[in-house]
Amino acid sequence: MCQSRAVTETVLVLGGGGREHAIVRALARSRPAPRVVCAPGNAGMARDAETRAVDAVDAVAVVALARELDAALVVVGPEAPLVAGVADALREAGFATLGPGAGAARLEGSKAFAKDVMAAAGVPTAASRTVTSVADGLAAVDAFGLPVAVKADGLAAGKGVVVAHSRDEAEAALRASIEDRVFGEAGASVVVEEGLTGREVSLLALCSGRVVARFPAARDYKPVGDGNTGPNTGGMGSVSPVPDIPDALADELVDRVHRPVLAELARRGMDFRGVLYAGLMMTPDGARVIEFNVRFGDPETQVLLPRLEQDPLTLMRDAAEGRLADGPVRVNDGAAVAVVMAAHNYPGTPRTGDAIAGLDDAAAAGADVYHAGTRAADDGSIVTAGGRVLAVSARGDSIPDARSRAYAAARLIHFDGAHMRDDIAEGLDT
Fold first, then answer.
1. Domain 128-194, CATH homologous superfamily name and number
2. Most buried one in 78, 245, 336, 430, CB count within 10 A?
3. What is the average pLDDT across 266-295?
4. CB 275 within 8 A of CB 78
5. DSSP 8-state class, residue 369
6. Is 299 helix (H, G, I), strand (E, B) or coil?
7. Residue 158 and residue 94: Cα distance in Å, rounded?
8. pLDDT digits 0-9 by tens, 93-140
9. DSSP category for residue 2
10. Is the pLDDT of residue 310 over 70?
11. Which residues lie below 8 Å from residue 264, measured CB to CB, with a gap of 6+?
12. How far is CA 29 from the centre of its chain?
């Protein structure tokens, strides 16, 4: 039975990035607003909630913290704790938890597993081969032709994918992953996938068993440079809505992708309670799944949750406890655009420790400034602490309006080495 909301409840949010900061800000809009505790959190989240220095991947420590807090809900933000089974440990301890168990989290933790599930469920995706040697990888490249996608099988923080346009580039990516182990054990196996062309779209849905409550479509901009040039990143910006993915088409995509996958997981004994994120390529031959994530996307969350018109805590808790209503979530009619500000040398080895100025100015301009890679310095200032430092998100009546507001606010923030794409949501006129 649902606990009464008359008494202030505590929600534990695991993680310390921009996605988790967006979740914290959304929960603050619930009525009554819950007490929110973040583990480990970051410098920006510490302004909006309590933070605890607990490793989100340490299941024993997380369960102990949830018990200490008597948490009414635990929201698992990042993928690593989910793959490590933290959600399983929390549920076994009796806590309502938003996030799938380790079995279903393999949809993100292993691209080969995701391909197997899609094949069994009849979900459209690119042809692929899973290889453990460079020679086998090159044979797959020759079979598929160019371009091809070379993907580390395991978790690689959004950096394990290379779209190769030459055989030499594909060979270099295979050697880096399999032989040089630049992604550690995550790259011991590699999925070589036929190249797809078209527009990418992110379609996220809260799921509970076979029930699906989808968000409107969003678009993520992964390459570091304007015009989708340069290496892939965890995401340099996002926009919602997406004019070429209207709600009717989004519903069709959920029926073709999310529901069959949930049914296949259920057939395998996995009760999925969390967020299922489908990264899709809209090819000339129809939609194809590029990847699955099993949590809120980053930076898609920074444009989707600000548009939410339902009570965020109720929605997340209903998904965790099996009371979720099937159908689209309610959002406002406007738009949101998020621009990521990255540190010097990202997506390589980013420089950290650079002082950040202008945060309050950007907030005063009406933007939501979500912290991802930040920390508090000894003197109380906020400094960079990661590759993607901030996501500056703004809402507007239209995409151009939201885009203008987001960039105007982002340009008020300064730190040495800061860089951002200048073309997020460019050309979208809804």
1. ATP-grasp fold, A domain (3.30.1490.20)
2. 336
3. 96
4. no
5. E
6. coil
7. 32
8. 999 999 999 999 999 999 999 999 999 999 999 999 999 999 999 999
9. P
10. yes
11. 117, 120, 121
12. 21
- Name the pTM for this structure: 0.93
Please name which of 410, 358, 16 lies closest in space to residue 237, comparing C-alpha atoms: 410
Query: Does a cis peptide bond (omega within 30 degrees of 0) precede residue 147?
Result: yes
Q: What angle do CA 196, 202, 206 make, to 5 degrees?
A: 140
Pick among 3.90.600.10, 3.40.50.620, 3.90.79.10, 1.10.3210.10: CATH of 335-410: 3.90.600.10
CATH of domain 10-99: 3.40.50.20
Which 8-state DSSP code applies to residue 176? I
Residue given tokens 């078209």 in the structure block:
198
| DSSP 8-state secondary structure symbol assigned to residue 166 | S
d(CA 424, CA 302): 14
Q: Which of 108, 297, 292, 286 is nearest to 197 (CA)?
A: 286
The percent of the chain in helix, strand and coil, each rounded to the nearest 5, is: 30, 30, 40
Strands 237-240 and 335-342: what pairing? Answer: antiparallel
Q: Is the separation of the CB atoms in 274 and 98 below 8 Å?
A: yes
| 208 vs 321: CA distance, rounded Å | 8
What residues form DSSP beta bridges with 355? 383
φ and ψ at residue 282, rounded to 5 degrees:
-90, 90
What is the C-alpha to C-alpha distance for residues 27 and 127, in angstroms, rounded to an integer?
Answer: 40
